[in-house]
Amino acid sequence: AQTVTQSQPEMSVQEAETVTLSCTYDTSESDYYLFWYKQPPSRQMILVIRQEAYKQQNATENRFSVNFQKAAKSFSLKISDSQLGDAAMYFCAYNNDMRFGAGTRLTVKP
Amino acid sequence: DSGVTQTPKHLITATGQRVTLRCSPRSGDLSVYWYQQSLDQGLQFLIQYYNGEERAKGNILERFSAQQFPDLHSELNLSSLELGDSALYFCASSPTGGFHYGYTFGSGTRLTVV
User: Which residues pair with B12 in a beta bridge?
Assistant: First the structure.
């Protein structure tokens, strides 16, 4: 079965600093999409960033960027200049079987 | 407002009962997905419908069933409820049968079984 693994149940970052959340996945497919979703205390699921596997270039969205290593099947999320509003659960997702990782709880310290 | 509407927002019911959760996808989206999120857990994929037809099935219990109607809204039926069914149930939609562009999630229905 395909799996998505987030090995960091919790992470903490100082406001204005940078933090990286890890995600690895298992697949035999060559064409797929990967996503990071944010779930703040409101529990709403919010799409943060999307990466197409066939694109070499890492996706970026403002302060959010990914480090996509296709051969290593790694898809980490980097949050720069962390803000208090970034505090949330972050889920990595793989599209081909609608699977999400277990999540990483990010705390931002003022 | 994400455009995906889920009702009700909260539901409290007793063990052994049956409930129906409703989802209206974002305008133009043909696919509806149902996920279950237990307390402080990840999202478990239950089932996907695309344009009225079942497209994919995940870890959905036999006590649970779903359907998508001609107007594309979907209902998730949960029967013979157990305490362990207490969870946040999300509906999400996407334009096509795959989720290449990511889902749009509703705000969820919080089900409490007592």
Answer: B112
Residue A4: CB atoms within 10 Å = 22
Residues of chain B with pLDDT under 70: 97-99
Cβ contact, residue pair B43, A43, below 8 Å: no
Give the gap in angstroms from C-alpha B71 to the nearest C-alpha of chain A: 24
pLDDT on residue A29: 85
For B71-96, write each residue's pLDDT tens digit. Answer: 999 999 999 999 999 999 999 999 87
Rounded Cα distance, B104 and B18, in Å? 27
- Interface contact A1, partner B, CB < 8 A: no
Q: Residue A68 pLDDT more than 90?
A: yes
**Average pLDDT of every residue of chain A:** 93
Count how many residues are written for chain A.
Answer: 110
Chain A CB contacts of B105 under 8 Å are 44-46
Task: Please give the backbone phi and psi of residue B64, each rounded to the nearest 5 degrees, phi first.
Answer: -105, 145
The one-character DSSP state at B85 is G
User: Which residues from chain A sit within 8 angstroms of residue B48, using beta carbons?
Assistant: 98
Give the mean model confidence (pLDDT) for residues A6-17. Answer: 97
Q: What is the pLDDT of residue A2?
A: 63
Q: Compute CA A60 distance to the chain's CA centroid, rounded to the nearest angstrom.
A: 12
Residue contact B103–A101, C-beta within 8 A: no
Alpha-carbon gap, residue B4 to A13, rounded angstroms: 32
**What is d(CA A51, CA B70) in angstroms, rounded to the nearest whole number?**
33
